[in-house]
Amino acid sequence: MLHIGTRGSNLATTQAGHVRDAIIAGGTEAELTIVTTPGDLSQAPVERIGIGVFTSALRDALFTGQVDVAVHSFKDLPTADEPRARIVVPAREDNREALIARDGMGLANLPEGARVGTSAPRRVSQLKALRPDLDIRPLRGNIESRMGRVESGELDAIVLAYAGLARAGYGERATQLFNPVEFMPAPAQGALAVECRSDDAGTVAVLESLMDNTAALQVSAERHVLATLEAGCTAPVAAHAEVAGGQLTLRAGVFALDGSRQLVQSGSIEVPDVDDIASRERARGLGRELAAKLLDAGAAELMASE
């Protein structure tokens, strides 16, 4: 029996439940184990609690043997390598950003000065670039409580990751899905990181069957942008990778919080075989290359000014 560690929110248990079901379908018994994190006990924004707050407790449970597997939203993981863990990336959910607005409205239809909820600097900056008139309000809590602020009339709209909405069964609540080139998502958005202890050979073998090599290639490229910029998961940094026709195309950006300035770089590499180790190294290299170009263009100064 494998014990799968997860946070207790509806979204976290739902996505961990998908992993559990896939493991069981492969012939191994598994069950969920709820791990309480400091972030679950605080109403403060992530920026104040600290980066990695939702992942460190799960990793502690993993490395102390309380659980055998931990399931994270990959975008929440620190970019530094963790040699004690083996990470597998299952098939990725849609990584686009979603608007949930009253009366079925899209962003362009929101009235002047509309109250839009989000606390992510990356989203704030891009919203202000598209609609400088918006009144951006802090947003905290689980998916249900965030949507409730629109339902109650407190906010006119909120912006969330569509992946979370879809996994939790709320995909139809989105009133607009943004083109990821025009409104860029976080690096690794929509991807799960399923990890076990690297010295646990039996569990490593079980998890390897869940690996989606295309998703892993995309995530590797996107996260190497973040790592090279030495930016945390709450920084105003975005990245979006696509794989099609034997080619990986990566777009990466750094944004001024007030929407006044955007630095964007893009590039492509050949990836004839997504299973090939060399393809993954080229994907990492592309992420590092675009991050270096962003730094040359002034990304460090832009991030430091936030």
Description of the structure:
The protein has 306 residues and is an alpha/beta fold. It has three domains: 1-90 and 190-211, Periplasmic binding protein-like II (D-Maltodextrin-Binding Protein, domain 2, 3-Layer(aba) Sandwich), CATH 3.40.190.10; 97-177, D-Maltodextrin-Binding Protein, domain 2 (3-Layer(aba) Sandwich), CATH 3.40.190.10; 212-299, Double Stranded RNA Binding Domain, CATH 3.30.160. 35% of the residues lie in helices and 23% in strands. The protein contains ten helices and 13 strands. It has helices at 10-25, 46-49, 53-63, 121-130, 143-151, 162-167, 201-208, 213-229, 277-296, 299-304; strands spanning 2-6, 30-34, 69-73, 85-88, 97-101, 115-117, 135-137, 157-161, 176-177, 192-197, 237-244, 247-255, 262-270. The strands form three sheets. The protein has a five-stranded mixed sheet with strand order 2-1-3-10-4, sandwiched between helices. A five-stranded mixed sheet has the order 7-6-8-5-9, with helices on both faces. A hairpin with a 6-residue loop joins strand 12 and strand 13. Helix 8 runs parallel beside helix 9 (277-296). The protein is globular and about 55 Å long.
